[in-house]
Amino acid sequence: MRGMKIALTVALVALSCMNLVNAQEDDALVQEAPVDPSLRTILPPVIYAVPGVEMSVYFDNIILHPDSDRFIYDVQCTIGRQQQERWTVVPDAEQVGDHGLTIRILTPEMVPLHEMSTTVRVVDAAAGAGETISALVIGDSLTAASAYPGRVVSLFATEGNPALTMIGETGPGGDSGNRHEGYGGWSCERFACAWDPEAEWKEVSGRMRRTRSPFLFETPDGPVLDFSRYFEKNSAGAPPDFITILLGCNDTFSSDETNIEERIDTMFGHLDTLLAAIRAAAPEAEIGLLTLVPPAASQDAFGANYGCGQNRWQYRRNQHRVVEREMETYGGREAEGIFLLPAHVNIDSVWGFPRPSVALGGHEETKIPRMSNGVHPATAGYYQIGDSIFAWMKARLAVR
């Protein structure tokens, strides 16, 4: 009997040890769990910031995943704070300098899936004070709305900043100083190639529309892309100090998985043509290519604009791929005076887009907010784009 008890005790101890070993092996398997293959992140190497101006990194904007809000995010940075949907900071003067920012993506069991890092560069708020600078802002309908160029103008109008002159043939008019080259529906191809032999502008559906690129000029051999003549026409021949370009939405909006790479190739071909022409006429200008900003966070916004013509997740995939390719193709070219300006991280795709109150539906009269514009932000979202441009320009002024 005693022998049976000893044998049973030994067996239980062996089973307990076996369970412990199995548990340790299971833990090891959990820790070595493969990264979700659908997890694609796009955190830029540098994020610019200025004391007194809010700068944020919205988690959904830097990860391509339909359930990005279900991940656990862990942010490590000596400045700012982590909130539910973002890391955010309004730097002060004592925080001028470089700060490491690391974002870990975890499962609910705290298993690391991905880790990415960047540098938050807080620059002197007085950078460029007393100077006179000029800028040319190029883009599509996001620029044509005049809100983010206007935000740039208003930020530079505050104390401790250089005097800014905006160059452009359109804008809200008056003495606002808000001038730019932004046209609804335009693409890299239209800026590089659009030509109408009859007129620069024509009335279309009761509105005056530009029909030829402002950068194309007639010659005996046909239209030629000539930024020197554009500067002679609009800035007494003086090239601007800064040029920003925000394009890509119209180049790739209707793409899908079968043709997105081809569409981006075409877009970049025309963008390279523009960059070469700019550089020939403005060899010292600093060029900021704004990464394509994400769309509104809800399918409601796409339904309001396009019916069943485009799916929000498809466009979000398109936009993410454009930014990946922008980072691959134009990143690391600062020595050429070409900078990637990471506008995609600093725009709120939930609260930075229009969301009017509408009836719930059916016979229910209760009203709820529904997002109503797929790609065009509300004023708050536009201002966040302007903040990103301002911070980049101040960063460049700080090292001149």
Pick out its properties.
single chain, 400 residues, alpha/beta, Immunoglobulin-like, Rossmann fold, 6-stranded parallel beta sheet, 4-stranded mixed beta sheet, 10 helices, 21 strands, globular
Reported for the largest beta sheet, the result is: 6 strands, parallel
In DSSP terms (H or I, runs of 4 or more residues), the helix count works out at 10
- The low-confidence parts are 1-34
The tally of beta strands, per DSSP, is 21
β-strand amount: 15-25%
CATH superfamily of the largest domain: SGNH hydrolase
Q: Give the overall shape, derived from the CA principal axes.
A: globular
Produce a short descriptive summary.
The chain is built from 10 helices and 21 strands.
List the helices and strands and how they pair.
Elements: H1 2-31, E1 40-41, E2 46-49, E3 55-58, E4 63-64, E5 72-77, E6 81-82, E7 86-89, E8 97-106, E9 112-122, E10 132-139, H2 141-144, H3 147-156, E11 163-167, E12 181-182, H4 188-193, E13 201-204, E14 207-210, E15 216-217, E16 224-225, H5 227-234, E17 242-246, H6 249-252, H7 260-281, E18 286-290, H8 299-306, H9 312-330, E19 338-341, E20 357-361, E21 364-369, H10 379-397
Parallel strand pairs: 2-9, 10-11, 10-12, 10-17, 17-18, 18-19
Antiparallel strand pairs: 1-4, 3-7, 5-8, 6-7, 8-9, 13-14, 15-16, 20-21
